[in-house]
Prior knowledge:
Blueprint: E1 8-10, E2 17-19, H1 22-33, H2 51-71, H3 78-89, H4 107-122
Antiparallel strand pairs: 1-2
Helix pairs in contact: 2-3, 2-4
Amino acid sequence: xxxxxxxxxxxxxxxxxxxxxxxxxxxxVKEHLKGHPVFVTIEKQPDKLTQKRVAFWLGYxxxxxxxxxxSVGHIMTPExxxxxxxxxxLGAGQVIGETDCNLPLDFKDLITNVTIWAAENLGVVLGDMxxx
Length: 132
């Protein structure tokens, strides 16, 4: 066994880490890793794509970028624009609205990255997600 993965949550009030199935984790560590050096990594779980976020992406971000692409000579359908943005920012195979997409980054970070890219490359200004 090379890797143990457990989930948990950092409490909002006291900031303490709460590991799900802590007893099982301790047992597996003792059984499989006793005496071995280990790395411990804690990662924030990626945001889940809610229906509201998918609607914002497909109903605002994609059409706005599509319009910007059109203004610089790239004619794309909304589906092509969505796939283009997802390939550019999420990697191949991750398509928002078409697949059970697992974001490799926080949704707000994705919007920030797209906003910067659209402004620099298309001259398009995307409004603040929280104000939409």
